[in-house]
Specification:
Blueprint lengths: L2 H20 L4 H22 L2 E4 L2 E4 L2 E4 L2 H4 L1 H12 L6 H32 L4 H27 L8 H10 L3
Antiparallel strand pairs: 1-2, 2-3
């Protein structure tokens, strides 16, 4: 198999994997990150408060914090995976390391978000809705973009997601 065929096969494999991971309903992300998110948030909150856990609900004093799928941010993990897999010419080991760094970074930021919102709920409940919306609409998007840009710099990525693949494919089409 020549180099061009290998590159085309690589593109096909990366995009098929992205499609397969998405079904059904980003299940794999929620399967992996729901328990990690719940138990990490519970553990950290338990350092500051007397907390108890029942399923996906953390109880603090007279407040309950329910970790729903949106709190886990499965779509954000998927977006980071899309950015990673849609970028060509990344060696396999480097790609795995990038995914690990991206997911770990997002997990840390997400846990911090849950902790901050929990503290706000306990201290100033009237600020919860506004703060939650600021996180939901602004900071979460900026976090994903920031993680990707940090990875581009840290791992010295020169290609552009999607565009570089499309440019390569079109350059090989003979009309």
């Amino acid at each position: 198999m020549n180099k061009i065929h290998r590159q085309l096969l690589n593109i096909l494999i990366r995009y098929v994997l992205l499609l397969l991971v998405a079904f059904p309903d980003l299940f794999i992300f929620y399967l992996i990150f729901t328990p990690i998110t719940i138990y990490l948030a519970f553990f950290l909150l338990n350092l500051f408060f007397e907390a108890s856990l029942s399923g996906n609900i953390i109880f603090l004093d007279d407040v309950s914090i329910k970790i729903i799928p949106a709190c886990v941010a499965g779509a954000a993990y998927y977006l980071l995976l899309i950015l990673n897999f849609s970028t060509p010419n990344i060696e396999f080991r480097k790609r795995v390391k990038m995914i690990f760094v991206a997911f770990a970074s997002l997990l840390i930021l997400n846990i911090l978000r849950i902790l901050i919102l929990s503290f706000i709920t306990l201290s100033k409940p009237s600020l919860f809705n506004t703060t939650h919306e600021v996180f939901w609409y602004g900071i979460s998007t900026l976090s994903v973009v920031g993680i990707w840009f940090a990875e581009v710099k840290l791992f010295k990525i020169k290609q552009i997601p999607f565009y570089s693949d499309i440019k390569f494919v079109f350059s090989k089409i003979k009309c």
